[in-house]
């Protein structure tokens, strides 16, 4: 094979995204609160950006007398950077504007008092809404331990045991006691560790620091509760049989009746298999709807973008004047031209986001009117490609538009992605959403004969009677995802004829 080196010219198409296009897509993807933060960041970095001060206590007013883009006077037209012609037209227009302005400008950029007050209010709200750190499981146990009068060595071992407990794991002791001791430990040290574990297990919540589920449940029992001795027998020897609903086998081995076992099982369900989980830090984010959906007097849905808190941006008059100041240096003028271009692109991107998000929301609402009118069982299959085709944009634009966006509807605040569901076809060729199938599946199981529950194969047949053709593996998958036990586990043995 002959090899050679040389230069060749080839023509090929490569798609690249300009930085401004990337910024525009990022703006589209931001939810309202994140957009506010982005605008604040841009305003801090770009001194040419100013925001219109609006009194939030005043009702929104539409200025019918405001001139449109086509009817604006020469002075009111947007400032556009034109590098090819050195902005000659804009310079003349700006010079006239500066001459007509009644106020003078300082040589330095000043933040308006309203903007400074807005920043202070925002910081105050953040501090006021900041959640205090909840007490951890370890702290809760250590506080109880500190109130006990015990040997110092035992207390240190107890503290070591507590340090290994994790609320996310339910508060179980997963580390062997021997691993908590030093390398040259003695039998006495191991005895002290067992004593320390007993002390930790005596603390609240009951069942904490157990080494397995059986020990966790046993530590929660009290001789005063009903069926105390029977519960100990079931916990120690028959937990798996209880989980699998094999009650006849338990009855055969224990001589308990089915009714007794069921009653004991109900008592067991009152125990906590993960006592430490109550101390998990749960974060529940505040959901602020980006879109408001309302019905007019005729019952028609109207989409409104809830962006009242998104400030209206404009380019600073001060820097417009600096651009025309004969004392401005070439570097200063170039800086201002660059920042004007950046500011105008941000303003246009925000407006494009508003337009795209509104169109996408309107198309979604139009497709899912039955869902909004009748409820979840009436939701229809919908893919993002369908909305993209209807709005006339790329499917990735729809994906960015609905990402992390919420809509306030008469049925509550829902994520926009909630309206996109897959589905299948009935025997009649009609589309049916998977959510509808899941609701029907739940309905069938709720109404089944508990002495002889439906198997997954029987559920397939029942769904077929409702014109829903679904594979058995699909029924099994959704049953498990919905947390519904198998037919054997759902059987009520007290209803089975003997």
From TrEMBL:
Stretches assigned to the RNA polymerase sigma factor 54 DNA-binding domain: 334-491
Record's keyword annotation contains Metal-binding: no
Database matches in InterPro entries: RNA_pol_sigma_54 (IPR000394), RNA_pol_sigma_54_core-bd (IPR007046), RNA_pol_sigma_54_DNA-bd (IPR007634), RpoN_core-bd_sf (IPR038709)
Domain RNA polymerase sigma factor 54 core-binding: from-to ranges: 128-319
Biased composition range(s): Acidic residues: 52-67
Region (Disordered): 46-88
Domain of life: Bacteria
Biased composition annotated in UniProt, kind: Basic and acidic residues: 71-88
Keywords: DNA-binding, DNA-directed RNA polymerase, Nucleotidyltransferase, Sigma factor, Transcription, Transcription regulation, Transferase
NCBIfam families: rpoN_sigma
PANTHER family xref list: RNA POLYMERASE SIGMA-54 FACTOR
Stated family: Belongs to the sigma-54 factor family.
This protein's name: RNA polymerase sigma-54 factor
Gene source species: Novipirellula caenicola
GN (gene name): rpoN
């Amino acid at each position: 094979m002959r090899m050679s080196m040389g230069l060749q010219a080839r023509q090929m198409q490569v798609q690249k995204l300009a930085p401004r296009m990337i910024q525009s897509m990022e703006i589209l993807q931001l939810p309202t609160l994140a957009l506010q933060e982005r605008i604040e960041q841009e305003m801090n970095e770009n001194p040419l950006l100013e925001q219109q001060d609006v009194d939030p206590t005043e009702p929104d007013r539409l200025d019918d007398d405001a001139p449109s883009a086509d009817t604006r006077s020469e002075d009111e037209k947007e400032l556009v950077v034109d590098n090819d012609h050195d902005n000659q037209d804009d310079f003349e227009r700006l010079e006239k504007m500066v001459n007509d302005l009644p106020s003078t400008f300082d040589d330095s950029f000043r933040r308006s008092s309203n903007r400074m007050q807005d920043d202070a209010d925002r910081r105050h709200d953040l501090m006021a809404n900041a959640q205090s750190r909840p007490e951890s499981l370890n702290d809760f146990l250590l506080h109880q331990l500190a109130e006990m009068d015990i040997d110092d060595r035992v207390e240190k071992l107890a503290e070591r045991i507590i340090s290994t407990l994790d609320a996310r794991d339910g508060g179980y002791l997963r580390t062997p006691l021997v691993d908590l001791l030093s390398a040259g430990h003695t039998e006495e040290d191991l005895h002290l560790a067992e004593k320390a574990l007993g002390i930790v297990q005596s603390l609240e919540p009951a069942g904490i620091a157990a080494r397995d589920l059986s020990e966790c449940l046993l530590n929660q029992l009290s001789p005063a509760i009903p069926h105390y001795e029977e519960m100990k027998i079931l916990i120690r020897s028959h937990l798996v049989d209880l989980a699998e609903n094999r009650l006849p086998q338990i009855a055969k081995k224990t001589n308990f009746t089915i009714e007794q076992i069921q009653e004991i099982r109900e008592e067991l369900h009152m125990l906590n298999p993960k006592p430490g989980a109550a101390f998990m830090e749960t974060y529940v984010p505040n959901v602020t709807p980006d879109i408001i959906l309302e019905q007019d007097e005729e019952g028609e849905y109207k989409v409104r973008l809830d962006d009242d808190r998104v400030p209206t941006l404009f380019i600073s008059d001060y820097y417009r004047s600096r651009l025309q100041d004969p004392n401005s240096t070439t570097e200063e003028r170039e800086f201002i031209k660059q920042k004007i271009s950046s500011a105008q692109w941000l303003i246009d991107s925000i407006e494009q986001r508003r337009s795209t998000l509104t169109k996408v929301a309107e198309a979604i609402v139009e497709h899912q009117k039955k869902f909004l009118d009748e409820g979840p069982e009436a939701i229809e299959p919908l893919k993002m490609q369908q909305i993209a085709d209807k709005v006339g944009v790329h499917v990735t634009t729809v994906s960015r538009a609905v990402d992390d966006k919420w809509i306030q509807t008469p049925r509550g605040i829902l994520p926009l992605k909630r309206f996109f569901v897959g589905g299948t076809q009935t025997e009649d060729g009609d589309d049916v959403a998977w959510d509808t199938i899941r609701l029907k599946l739940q309905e069938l199981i709720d109404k089944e004969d508990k002495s002889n529950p439906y198997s997954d194969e029987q559920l397939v047949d029942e769904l077929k009677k409702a014109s829903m053709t679904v594979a058995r593996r699909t029924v099994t998958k959704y049953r498990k995802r919905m947390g519904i036990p198998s037919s054997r586990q759902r059987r009520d043995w007290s209803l089975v004829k003997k």
